[in-house]
Task: structure prediction
Amino acid sequence: MLISNDLYFRGYYTVGNEQFTSKTAAVYESWRSNQPIKWHYHNEIFDHFYQNNPPHTLGKQNLESLYRERAQQLRDKYDYLILHYSGGSDSHNILMTFLNNNIKLDEVFNRRHDSIESKIYIPDPHNFSNNNFQSEWDYAALPTLRWLARTHPEIKITTSAMFDTPVDQVLNDDTFATATHYPGLINLYRSQAVSPSEQELRFSRKRIANILGNDKPIVYKKENTCLMAFSDAGLPNPAIDCSNKESFYWSPDFPQLSFNQAYQVFQYYLENPLDQWLIEKETQLNETAFARNKKDAITKQIIYKDTWDCRRFQTVQADTYSTHNSNFIIADKDRIFVENIEFAKLYDRWLYYYNAYDIHKLRLIASSNLCVSSVYWLGNFPEVLSE
Result:
């Protein structure tokens, strides 16, 4: 059976005997039938790797060499590589892996419609709150892209005209019926953003890959054990409409990378017991912005220590959603679009479909159905003896 790129990239959901590629459809059926929803993400591949590579065998190979192997694996598999680059630590590490190891990268692509986005905010290098997210372009992505253009002119650099996509293509009767998650308007436009090169090469015989980052390793402490898992929310935007999407870190083609990342994170917390509260299961279920950002900073220092400078400009992750009115919820980083008159009609249209599918209810249901893969044991923490 031919497996679609989306199914291979995102896995699938089941409710009872029914299978879904859309999380929205799966959550709706779970609510309707009162049956649990399960997410399947190459469990057989990761399970097989784990059975043949138990925790005591991990950590023998440094992450930098694994990053190099993964980059070379992609180079050998495809004719044309497009890196989706945001300026954040995940995509920056991928970029530097290719450059530092002299592995050819054909293109770096950023989802930004500069002629529109540059008009709706004023860059602020002193504001690190999430509502200044757009400034990451000015102080993180753009300086790197300018440096790349000077030092590696052979790499093509492109940006997106995502807001030029016809509105009927972005917002229609199928928008939420097929959505894997519950995207806001701006994420819907971002998901339509593909490299102009892909359009040009689509009918050629070249094998094109779109390389994307994903979430940091999901590691948590339960009692005195340390566990890892994959989460559907940790994979890249599910609606990205491009061919051959490749998750650089969480790939079933290279499971040793994700397991070794998680094991290195476990080793840090094993050696730093005062920080273990950050990965307590209870902490993560009710995670504050402070805890999330502190944990994120620690993880970057562990898994990207050779490529990430913590002094680079980056806004903190949002800890809440901002209620624009009583009917719908938006991400903090996109509030600037909602408040701009140019987007008012688009938001009204988005809200129509949002309410038609009762997305607010589905979000609440989904929050109690966190979709994770198989869970893998990494090791034990020493038991704390009570006095």
Residues 5-380 form one domain. The longest helix spans residues 135-151. The longest strand covers residues 80-84. Residues 220 and 279 are 5 Å apart (CA to CA).
